[in-house]
Amino acid sequence: MRKILCAISVTFFLLVFCSCEYSRETNVTEIEGIQIPFLLYENDTNLKLLKSKLAYWSLVDGKIDLEDELYSVSFSENSPSDFVKPIAWDGTNFVLHKSVKVNGIDKKNYEIAKSFTMCNTWGRNIKMETILDKSGQIKEHMMSLKTKDGIIKNKALYLYKKTKDEFGNEFIIGEDSSCVDFDQETGDIINLCMDRISGSNLYVARSNIKNTEDINWTKISFPKKVTSRGNYSPDFTNSILVGNKYYIQTDNGLAEVDIERNKFRLLTEVENECKNIVKEGSFDTGYQEGIRPVGVFKDILILSVPVCSDTSLEFLMCAYKNNKFVGGVHLKRDQKWDIINHKKEIVSTIDFSKKDLEPQLGEYLTFPYGCGSF
Question: Which of 61, 95, 140, 211 is the 20 to 30 Å CA partner of 34?
């Protein structure tokens, strides 16, 4: 009888283990109907405009559909490429620079940031403005919360505690944010703040629309010898919040911080998978490029993976759903992009070589990323 029970236990363990391993594979039904929006920036030398165009990437069939122009920036602007990327964009709603001319976005779906103060932070359904006193110190934060019934404004003060660096310089946790978020369903507000002195602690501030001044702070500490500071310090270009998971860069690689369970883990398996999708060439950049979280659409995370050809640095954009690979776009330097399906097969190639595309941080496209500051 004992042998039979042991055999049953072993069989059950193997079934569970195998099913867990198999869960890394993507079922096509998980991505049916998903079209990820992104922006391209095309130079029009005749009209002297840098145009932002909308496109959609279908995960199932590997197609990219290019839509109409949304807005443009004149070449007469100083460094027009600095103003063409949205300050914030969630796939539907835009925050744009005042120098753009909007052509194809509904008025209710965009906001123009009129002044450069670095005191405004946007996130999902939220704008947080930092109010300074006469001495330049933070007085309070004013939040504009986009509810189903309209915009509600509330005050708060996201200053937690002081820390010092090795030179005695003071820094207050909450002085700057790496991400803000407002959940319309629950009314919960989240403000993520990195300890930029140590680079090893993420602080999560939580409140609710019912009482925005009642703020609860949680500290999530990283493992020893793992830091996220310097070039890796989380900001609006290299960190993404997907649900309760915050994806960041560290000096040890890509990481996931579960802000609900207060857990941290390095995504070594995801990194290794990304690096083996495209065969690399012999070009040497001279320094180590890290995998960077650059976008989110619904519950899909977009990663920018640097890959080398024989002559230059290129980028592979990888889409992940629940840490499972669901598709990729290889942005080749010749502007002939390979579209890769969830089985890691090239299913189509899109030729953009006749379009004069303007790169942004090396990549030639922008995915929805939610948060931004201006």
Answer: 95
Rounded Cα–Cα distance for residues 8 and 327 (Å): 38
Q: Which two tokens stand for residue 189?
A: 């507000």
Q: At CA 276, angle to CA 25 and CA 248, rounded to 5? A: 80
- Convert the chain into a string of H (helix), E (strand) and C (coil): CHHHHHHHHHHHHHHHHHHHHHCCCCCHHHCCCCEEEEEEEEEECCCCEEEEEEEEEECCCCCEEEEEEEEEEECCCCCCHHHHCCCEECCCCEEEECCCEECCCCHHHEEEECCCCCCEEEEECEEEEEEECCCCCEEEEEEEEEECCEEEEEEECCCCCEEECCCCCEEECCCCCCEEEECCCCCEEEEEEECCCCCCEEEEEEEECCEEEEEEEEEEECCCCCCCCHHHCCCCCCCEEECCEEEEEECCEEEEEECCCCEEEECHHHHHHHHCCCCCCCCCCCCCCCCEEEEEECCEEEEEEEEECCCCEEEEEEEEECCEEEEEEEECCCCEEEEECCCCCEEEEEECCCCCECCECCECCECCCCCEEC
**Taking 70 as the threshold, does the pLDDT of residue 309 lie above it?**
yes
Give the per-residue pLDDT at 4.
44
The per-residue pLDDT for range 44-87, each reduced to its tens digit, is: 999 999 999 999 999 999 999 999 899 999 998 878 888 999 99
Within 10 A of 281 (CB to CB), how many other CB atoms are there?
13
pTM of the model: 0.90
What pLDDT is recorded for position 1?
A: 47
* Span 1-10, average pLDDT: 43
φ, ψ (nearest 5 deg) of residue 365: -155, 160
Beta bridge partners, 180, equal 191
Neighbours of 213 (CB within 10 A): 11
- Contact predicate 185/125, CB 8 Å: no
